[in-house]
Design brief:
The two termini are 30 Å apart. The chain has eleven helices and twelve strands. It is α/β, with parallel strands linked by helices and 380 residues long. A seven-stranded mixed β-sheet has the order 2-8-7-6-5-3-4, sandwiched between helices. Strands 9-10-12 form a three-stranded antiparallel β-sheet. Strands 1-11 form a two-stranded parallel sheet. The protein has helices spanning 14-26, 36-56, 69-83, 99-110, 128-134, 157-164, 239-276, 303-312, 332-336, 341-344, 358-379, and strands at 2-3, 63-66, 90-94, 114-118, 139-145, 171-175, 194-198, 209-213, 281-282, 293-297, 315-316, 347-351. Helix 3 (69-83) runs parallel beside helix 4. The chain folds into two domains: 2-8 and 259-364, Aspartate Aminotransferase, domain 1 (Alpha-Beta Complex); 14-250, Aspartate Aminotransferase, domain 2 (3-Layer(aba) Sandwich). The site of pyridoxal-5'-phosphate has 16 residues, from helix 3.
């Protein structure tokens, strides 16, 4: 099997699964219970919070555990909008955000919020000038992603954060679900107030995530109840998910230090190969893109059919993002980047992880070549 769909989800690391099993079996107490089993579970959560905080270079009381990226983005955006609505009702985001941001903003529009969706250039980046021109007295939130999940474009988060620093009333939220462990981001230096992570994107277990909330920022909770996680997210904690997320983040961080160059080289090799295929158009920008995502189009070929063809050979890739890949329309990311329907309706995404190898790249080329040849013959 060649698994090149790591932006959809990753295979949990072996040690992460072991940790999950150990915690869920032996530390099953409810962290809110006052007996020793509950206290042990609570201690594990606090230890995990400290590990995550140390890796992110933030304080432990700024780390909140969630169920993943969609929930983190919802809590950040709606929680901020509801909390600060007396200050203003304007939100700025971009046209190429993940559905969990765009749909959340659309929902807020139905409740009377005013949302600006920034354009992107042909490489998928927002312009700081556009952002500057969009700011109003009523702006309360800017929500932008660090790494785009479809094409891998890296947004200039540091510059944006530094610019926004002069507006103390504007909260800066960053969706870093695709960037963590792949593209460094210093939350403090970039003046980020809220940052979303998702465990299953860095070899953790599905149903685990982190929302960083800078000290002093308040969020109206969306889920009320037992006031767990600083009242931001009530509900009995997913202890095993939390502990295994901390483990996954630690391992991913180590892999980044040791193997990010290798990851970039594998991507370069794939880009070089795909560029040499006459039917392929590369959509991922060469500069300012993450080391693990390659998006390309096969004009005239139905991408779903081609993904299935590769799947028959146990090569797993995506058409666009996992949550929109079953919808038949064109990619909103590629359309926003200015690509026409032939390109934006025929895109395929390869997303690598530190677990992939050169041998897989070589094998992939062979399978891709044969599959493409067969496809073209069928189309004649
Ligand atoms: C950029 C981005 N944000 C948010 C999410 C949602 O994360 P989750 O699957 O944990 O809900 C994803 C998932 O693909 C993503 O790529």
């Amino acid at each position: 099997m060649i698994y090149f769909d790591n932006s959809a989800t990753t295979r949990p690391y072996k040690e992460v699964v072991e940790t999950f099993q150990e915690v869920t079996t032996n530390y099953f107490g409810n962290p809110s219970s006052i007996h020793s089993l509950g206290q042990q579970a609570e201690k594990l959560i606090q230890k995990s919070r400290q590990i995550v905080a140390d890796i992110l270079n933030v304080r432990d009381e700024e780390v909140f555990f969630t169920s993943g990226g969609t929930e983190g983005n919802n809590i950040a955006i709606k929680g901020c909008a509801l909390q600060y609505k007396s200050r203003g009702n304007h939100i700025i985001t971009s046209k190429t955000e993940h559905a969990s941001v765009i749909e959340t903003c659309k929902q807020l529009e139905n409740f009377g919020f005013d949302v600006t969706y920034l354009d992107v250039n042909n490489e998928g980046q927002v312009s700081i000038e556009d952002l500057k021109n969009s700011i109003k007295d009523s702006t309360i939130l800017v929500s932008l992603m660090h790494v785009n999940n479809e094409v891998g474009t890296v947004q200039p988060i540091m510059e944006i954060g530094n610019y926004l620093n002069q507006f103390p009333k504007i909260i800066f939220h960053v969706d870093n679900v695709q960037g963590i462990g792949k593209v460094p981001l210093n939350l403090r230096k970039a003046n980020i107030d809220l940052c979303t992570l998702s465990g299953h994107k860095f070899h953790g277990i599905k149903g685990s995530g982190v929302l960083f909330v800078k000290n002093g920022i308040k969020l109206e909770p969306l889920i009320t109840g037992g006031m767990q996680e600083g009242k931001i997210r009530s509900g009995t904690e997913n202890v095993a998910g939390i502990v295994s997320l901390a483990k996954a983040l630690r391992v991913s961080n180590e892999k980044y230090t040791l193997h990010v160059e290798q990851l970039q080289e594998m991507k370069n090799e794939l880009v070089k190969y795909l560029s040499s295929c006459e039917d392929v158009i590369i959509n991922t920008p060469i500069m300012n893109s993450a080391p693990h995502i390659i998006n390309f189009s096969l004009p005239g070929i139905k991408p779903e059919a081609f993904v299935h063809e590769l799947g028959k050979n146990k090569v797993y890739v995506s058409t666009r993002s996992a949550c929109s890949s079953k919808k038949a329309d064109v990619s909103h990311v590629l359309s926003s980047m200015g690509f026409d329907k032939t390109i934006s309706g025929s895109s395929i995404r390869i997303s690598l992880s530190y677990g992939n190898s050169y041998e897989e790249i070589i094998k992939f080329k062979e399978i891709f070549n044969n599959s493409l040849k067969q496809f073209k013959q069928l189309m004649r």
